[in-house]
Amino acid sequence: MENSIIYPDVATEIIEIFKFVEEPVLDKIPEKLKNELEKISNKEYNFKIDESKTLKEQKLLPATKELLSAIFIKYCCREEDGNEILVACKENDLRLEEEKRKKYDPDKIFEKKQKEQAQVIKQVENTDGQCFKLVVIEPWYKRVKRRIKNFFRKFI
Questions:
Q1: Under 8 Å between Cβ of 55 and 19
Q2: Is pLDDT above 70 for 52?
Q3: pTM, to two decimals
Q4: In the chain, what are the domain boundaries?
């Protein structure tokens, strides 16, 4: 926590949330952290908790959510529960990374391009056992037709 940067608006939101936390839970949070949050908080930032909504429904900054969860894990919950939460977060991060990997797979990025490619390369084996490649190029009128179609697709 000492190495991270806490923004003034985030500190203000955390202090406001602390006003609604029960005393036994609030006592677990070190006074040094509370004082530091008070020092760096933005006095001009007007943030109020809507008591009719749950904490999850509040419009909090993303950094506030992160800091609040870190404070909860470090100071308020039991060590076993904190470890379970951290494991669940790591699993969630790995799952999200896997989804991104599937969505933006570098192997599949050029797959569509290769299918649409105009040139077809064939490998032919010579009677001497040597291999050479033949490049079959599509006729010029097919290329023109394809480019015209692609041009008009932009307007559809």
A1: no
A2: yes
A3: 0.56
A4: 8-76, 118-153
